[in-house]
Amino acid sequence: MDRGEITLDSLKSTDDEDRVINAEIIHGLLAGTYGNDLHPHGIRIRYARIAGSLNNVGEPHPSFEFNSRTFPVGIKFEHCWLDHPMLAHDARVPWLHLDNCVIPYFHADRVRVDGSLYLRGLKAGGGTDLGAVRLLGAHIGRNLELDRAVLHNKQGPSLHAEGIQVDRALRFRAASLESTCDTGAVQLVNAHVRGDFWLDGTHIHNEKGPALNAEGLEVGGSLLLCSGFVATARSKELATVHLMCVRVGSRLDFGEGRDATGHLWDTPRGEERELLPKKAAVIKNDEENEYKNHLTVDLGCASTDDLRLPAETVCTHKRPRWHIRKKCSNNKIIVVGLKYAMLSRESAHRHWSHWLRDHADRFEAQPYQHLAKTLRDNGHTTEARRLLIRLENARRKHGKAHWWSSWSSWPWHLAKRAFIGHGYRPGRALIGLLVVLATATFVMWQAQSAGSIQKPGLLHL
Ligand SMILES: [Zn+2]
Questions:
Q1: Mean per-residue pLDDT for 271-283?
Q2: CA 283 – ligand 1 centroid, Å
Q3: Cβ atoms of 276 and 310 closer than 8 Å
Q4: pLDDT > 90? residue 126
């Protein structure tokens, strides 16, 4: 069979001896059964069906098992059909590639990969509640790449990599992930990525919980959810994109992305734009919580240098401002404790007063105060003052004072708002004084003209 005619579907059913490799041979190669003179560049298997299933002592087993094994060389599977799942818990590997392969599932908790782990174009759809790809506590010495991976799991998460450490970049671009899991389709809780983490163009859907659950994630570089990133979920408790307490060293970006983001795996030049369109992130949650709200993004207590959250990612409403209050969606974001240092052109900070009023999960003063401080630090002092006045209005609206106390203090609130802008516009007081002075002068002048003012008589003794 010519290599150009070989498809993964044809490999699935092939009995061609040239294309079928028994798992026992791979086990034998790695165990030194056929000698120890393996090529230092490792083992490379392409366009093959990996049949049979063995455990790590060579006994029949329902999976292709390398648990606790130290690989003498790296191994690369490319365009292969693996009949059985692969297990590599506690294994140590120089590098491992499963590019464009089909496998029921790949589980490798605590695996130590000295180089890169490539799962580019991997198709895994095994029905297991432990995940289609599971890498709990794994340590990857260089890159972890899942570009264009298709991980669909109807019984659990698509990717479960809680506590993973990646010493360079984590690339997860133009991938498709679907799952039914109440703790998240992609779970990266307490993960640590020293370089950039790319999710550009990736589509994540969860029928039963959040799409991305990355609470406590640390990213040394940028966290990029750009270029057509789409996350949809049915999640009552957690937001669709749950990034609570994440720490991002550089940029946290939900925007359109940049023109040049590096070559995308197995994609001809010129076709990358279709998979990585210049579109801001779309994040939806079809499930209501107990307050009839749809939680979409949770950035509570998160921190980053540069936050780019486009207007359309939070609120897709396009109508004029005076219609917003009635027509806006129930999408809610959590931004309490969120800290960022700068406001770039793409930060859409002008929309924040609307978001904090209509899209914040609950009223807190901190998001207003932090935005006002950042605005001041970036030279937008007028906007900062305006925002702090809105904070005082919101504070009164959401205050829990007794109704009588609330109503009785209303005139005082209005007066402070009108005459001194709650203390942030003291110049208004001067204008008020001038108005009073001008009014008094006018009244006096009118009275004098009408002869209503009588001079006091002299008293002669
Ligand atoms: Zn809105």
A1: 92
A2: 14
A3: no
A4: no
Distance 205 CA to ligand 1 centre (A): 23
CA of 362 to the centre of ligand 1 (A): 15
Query: How far, CA to CA in Å, does 126 sit from each of 109, 120, 312?
Result: 17, 17, 35
**Å from CA of 44 to ligand 1 middle:** 53
CA distance 295 to 332: 5
Output the pTM of the full model. Answer: 0.85
Average pLDDT for the chain:
87
Q: How many angstroms is it from 268 CA to the middle of ligand 1?
A: 39
Strands of 331-439 (E only): list them.
Answer: 331-334, 339-342
Residues β-bridged to residue 150? 123, 176
Pairing of strands 92-93, 144-145: unpaired
pLDDT digits (tens, 9 = 90+) for 390-403: 898 888 777 655 56
Q: How far is the CA of 299 from the centre of ligand 1 (A)?
A: 18
Going from the Cα of 325 to the center of ligand 1, the distance in angstroms, rounded, reads 8
Predicted local distance difference test score (pLDDT) of residue 54: 65
- Distance from chain centroid for Cα 230: 10
Q: Ligand 1 centroid to 406 CA: how many Å?
A: 28
- What is the pLDDT, as a whole number, of residue 243? 98
Q: Which tens digit of pLDDT belongs to each residue from 141-181?
A: 999 999 999 999 999 999 999 999 999 999 999 999 999 99
Confidence of residue 317 (pLDDT cuts 50, 70, 90): low
How far is the centre of ligand 1, averaged over its atoms, from the C-alpha of 278 (Å)? Answer: 22
**Whether pLDDT at 325 is above 60:** no
Residues 6+ apart with CB under 8 A from 90: 67, 68, 109, 110, 111
Q: Has residue 441 got a pLDDT over 80?
A: yes
List strand residue ranges (DSSP E) for 214-316, in order: 218-219, 223-224, 230-233, 241-242, 247-253, 282-285, 294-298, 303-308
CA of 289 to the centre of ligand 1 (A): 18
CA of 267 to the centre of ligand 1 (A): 37
| Ligand 1 mean position, distance from CA 311 (Å) | 9
